[in-house]
Amino acid sequence: MRKKIVAGNWKMNLDYQQGVTLFSEIVNMAKDEVMGDQQVVVCSPFIHLHSIFQMAKGATHVAIGAQNVYFEDAGAYTGEVSAAQVKSAGAAYVILGHSERRAYFHEDDHMLSKKVDAVLKQELTPIFCIGETQEERESDRYFDIIKKQLKNGVFHLPNDAFGHVILAYEPVWAIGTGLTASPEQAQEVHAFIRNEIANQYNAHIAEDTTILYGGSCNPKNAPELFSQTDIDGGLIGGASLKSRDFIDIVKVFNS
Ligand code: 13P
Asked: How far apart are CA 174 and CA 134, in angstroms?
């Protein structure tokens, strides 16, 4: 059975104290309100990682993630942070390939495949993001784009390594815009992704892969999105900065 996951991506928001305060609210609410075997992941800026990891100890549902790493192990790479370093601070997950990093920091498929390798080498879980732009959707090229992102970013992995990857479908046109993909649009792409995994690996691995949806997800639209057959949770931006909204999205999976 694949895991149900709701991951928050704080992006470059919150100063140190604000992040610690938000996280303490999330942990407290999760303790009282989250009932089920869903996993909650909070991907904070690097500056919060170690403090919130300490606060998460004993919180069964909650794990910590980073939003990026560099692919080299160590050395003269001023300003970069390695997978080993985020692991030592308590991260268990790392978001990779987010469209904001692809667009603003020119991360291409080749670089991302090396980052995937670096993260897996440290036994961390990559949350690998894929998705098309508005122009690519309107010109009906979205399946080709997603296929290429999968092929170049993660399909080089052998079966056992691929089994540790979480995918996140984030249509670029739905990120931060309030324009959510409809449940049917999201399901169509998630089913396509699962089918591509079955073709590349096998049906069993495809069935076991967690595929998250991201893009203007909120407590109102999450129930219908998460009820789709191939949607296993969400990667949440704006709504993860409000503890009430974030936990309400997590609670969609309460049993
Ligand atoms: P929003 O939820 O703010 O649209 O952001 C989605 C996202 O980019 C998560 O990684």
From this structure: 9
